[in-house]
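Journal club prep — side note

Before the paper discussion, L.F. wants everyone to see what a predicted structure for a comparable chain looks like in token form. Sequence:
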Amino acid sequence: MYPNMRAVRAGLGIAVMAGLLIGPGEARAGSFEPILAIGQVVALHAGGSALVEVTGNFGFDDVLQIDFPVNLIVYQGKEFVRYPLGGEPSSGSFIPLQSGLVARQIPHLEANSEFEAEAEIVRLEPKRLLVSLPPKFEDGSITAVLYIVDPTLGPFLSNAVSTTLGAGAGP
């Protein structure tokens, strides 16, 4: 009925052996290297509070699927608020922030923060994060930075982007 059955079986055998010798293709469940980048930061007053919108790349899929410890820091002078995606915001004062944030300072910054009830993550979307600032932030320049601390690779920081909070600020 199938005159070439022997040839088909031989072909399948060769294909199976080749697959075993070559090995499986690359399979990735998520990103292995963090790519954190801020494209734009917009600050605006909304009623009695201030909102900060951050657009960029922060591993949205990883944040939702695995324990990917992304944090947003918004600071003004030495005052900061930290928004861990998937956690509770905290705030504090950290004098080195007046010169900008560097990776080696992150453990000290985190140690100098306490729960902040007046800050929250308002909205989390792919490439967009909207947060509310506590009232201690005054009109003036603010800076936003994304970071993670990977237990094996260490800290990764995004670029820092500054904007103005105040009357007339925003889109």
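L.F.'s comment for the group: The CA atoms of residues 143 and 162 lie 4 Å apart. Keep this in mind when we get to the figures.
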